[in-house]
Amino acid sequence: MRKLFVGLILASTVAGCAAGGENQAEAPQLKVISPQRGTMQSGLADVEVRGTVAPALDMGDGPGAPIDSVEVNGVPAQVEADGTWTALVPIGAGETLLHTVARDTRGTEQTDTRAIAAGNLVPLATTVTDGLTAAISTQAFGVISDVASDLISSTDLGPLVQGMNPVVDSGDGPDCLYAQAFIQDVDMSSANIHLIPYQGGITLTAEIFNLDVPVATQYAVACLDGSTDARILADRVYISGDLDITVTGGVLDAHLVNPTIDLDNLDIQASGIPGTIIDMLDLDGMIEWALPYAVDLFVGPMVNDAIAGIAASAGPLNVTVAGKNLTLTMSPSAIDFTPAGGKIRLNSQFLVQGSEAAPGFIYTPNGLPSMDAGNGFQLALADDSVNQLTTGFWATGAMNMEIPKEAGQFDHMKIDARMPPMVSAAGSDGSLQLVIGDMMVDLMAQGVDEARLAFNVTVKLKIEGEGNYVHLALEPPEVSIDTSDEIPNITNISDDDLEQIHEYVIQAMLDQMLPLISTIPLPTLAGVQLENLDVNGQNGYVTVSGELTN
After folding, report:
1. In a domain, 143, yes or no
2. Residue 42 maps to which CATH number?
3. What is the domain-level CATH number for residue 244?
4. Residue 18 belongs to what domain range?
5. CA 178, CA 256: separation in Å to the nearest integer?
6. Mean pLDDT per 10-residue interval, the chain, length 550 residues
7. Pairing mode, if any, of strands 109-122 and 39-42?
């Protein structure tokens, strides 16, 4: 077995080829019979690991030393006189690497690493309850308020309000007596918006300075038609109300309710409009309901995105990765506000087209994460959501590939991934890792299978962000490589060959996994910068924490 970190050989005993010096003692003969590579076990019962062990072969310098011990993940095995051995090893939910070490009395070791997945198998189309939980602090709402203040001042609100036209439609016109008003635009010099969470909701206040609203009117008096432009001006507008945020049909929706409005130095310029029509238009009353509505149309979607971390109301997100079509769906299920901030829970479903016939994915029930946004935000993504995605990707055969690369005496490699990659966020140390277990690699030369290697890869996840964009990424992997007796190894593998094989295989696999992991939706918000980002594992969730700045 060879155990490597990226590009660095630490130990080597592949196919009897010793690393580290010509006089290194031959290692014991170790064979693991059960569990077979690629085993997926229903439930979480301890796994029985069985095999055989014998002293190293006599290579002309005498027999190998007697066997001293066999251990599997630190659990001592019961070794019988005939060399058979058994160990009962506890495993956790998800994917576990079983690392067997056989040691002789001279301290020489031989190892075997293989994977086993355990837990409840559920259909791939299962909706993961509370797949995503997000928390945002009061301080973060303050940052969003500042960004909203800057954006609303520079945003063309005309298209938003024009959907309300005619904002006044008095009478049964067009006929002999009617009046209609059409808002053309909403201009201002600056604005201040404040979002303040309280028990059960959010208070919204908005100050708008130097308001200028051009209005077009159409009317008729005594069957005589007319049209005149008007203008509504105010030095300062103050709007306050509650943002009513609800979850309906899996969609998050925020609307301003019960608004109040005060206008300083209101000036309605409507010369040339008959008095009767002025009364019918009621332009001051119109602006008192139209302007809060315009603010609602602007702020509501921004709050939706900020709280949910994604545009939850936008429906499923369809993306293509490595030629596979993915559908990512997030639907809010519950929301709660306190003076400390807001929390929302979303159900998730990540599906890969073409994986419908797969038996399912390993589901590991999680408790709700303990959310603490601090002075920023925190996002918790269930490892089941990630595993649903990676299992679907694996089920389509996307991880099986051929690599026409020369590596020493070999000219071709074929990868057969026997297990889906799985993320585990249940580590007691808070670490978060992706395990790619029992990835079998056939080595070929001129069309002949000459050897088969088993790769077991562990990769820690990290968070990367630039500006207002955040995504999960992978750290350099830790790799264990074993020869497999499924194909007789007719050619010894040199260290240089293995170094190249390792590099090609791992790079090919990361080229597949990196885009896939990066598709998982994490918070983005226009104008907000994400800083001091951190990722770890907690109760079966990938937790991402950070601060918002503008």
Report:
1. yes
2. 2.60.40.10
3. 3.15.10
4. 8-119
5. 31
6. 36 33 68 93 88 89 89 96 96 90 94 92 90 85 84 78 86 84 89 89 89 91 87 92 76 80 91 88 86 79 57 63 86 85 86 88 78 78 89 93 88 93 68 86 89 91 63 82 80 80 88 82 58 72 75
7. parallel
